[in-house]
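Example record

The entry below shows one chain as it appears in the dataset: sequence first, then structure tokens.
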Amino acid sequence: MAARTIAIYGKGGIGKSFTTTNLSATFALMNQRVLQLGCDPKHDSTTSLFGGISLPTVTDIFAEKNAQNEQLSISDIVFRRDVPDFPQPIYGIELGGPQVGRGCGGRGIISGFDVLEKLGIFKWDIDIILMDFLGDVVCGGFATPLARSLSEEVILVTNNDRQSIFTANNICQANNYFRTIGGQSRLLGLIINRDDGSGVAERYAEAAGITVLMKVPYNADARDKDDSFDFAIRLPEIREKFHKLAQDIVADRITPCEAVGLDFMGFVRLFGEVSNDAPQPATADELFGRKASDSGNQTVAAKSSLESDDLKMARCIEKLTPEQQEVYRMVELEKRAIGEIAELTQREESAIRELLASARKELTRLFFEN
């Protein structure tokens, strides 16, 4: 039976590889034969999966073999890790990419898939192939699984910040586009990583018609596991979430979404009121007519503006209630997790989330109305 293929997309740096690696490990614990395919020029997807070992990439090995007029084999680019307490080994491949400024990463992805298809990747005795894909690059190479229907299913990973949600929305739109021209990749839903309880990603998912598959709260111990190249699913609270998702995937309990994504104005309006005014055009006279000395004055003015914004925000924070101030500072300035704050302040986590949400809403009002 052909392997089940799932492409996992997300903005760089939000925990996409963390999510993919722990999902791979979960499938292996469930006695599934799993292959993790890293599709990011940083080639860091499988590092944690292999205990800190950096795998040779398809891009580099293919170039070496080609230079020596030698044939590339499966053993050159596919590696396995036998974890002592796992019933199945875990397999890994890194596609890799060119060094910064020396080539097109997307082109490397396309060439890498051509190599893997020639080696029969979709005929191997593998149950699940997880493809770890960078989502904030718009070139066609990174959309290869969608464009060529190489991934049966797609999972989006995001945080609660606007840029990572914007990236998820782009991938949703891209997948919908390819479906309109014959693509077969189905969107399973969205994973919220490092969930801070603000509900921003959930509001987006509801507006876009995307199922929230899993919410993983920020967890310092999980981060430490990942930093030390170990699996975060060794922690019971993390393992439980990943195990449920993996079970739902294997048992086909997830109904694919029909979401098309939000258009730009629909997206930005999720984050606040947006003016419908047309932008004010600059003139050639004002751009060419300034004296050189004005440039320095402009820089000073810009710096002063930034400083005044910081001061303005500080004054706004001072106008919050003491409880709102305490929670806001602990989250935004001290970068503490919701659970940790709940322990320190002896409040329920739900109360912390409500205080944080009300503080952010009040700050937005204070900052833009004064």
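Notes for this example: The first helix runs from residue 16 to 29. The chain has a mean pLDDT of 87.
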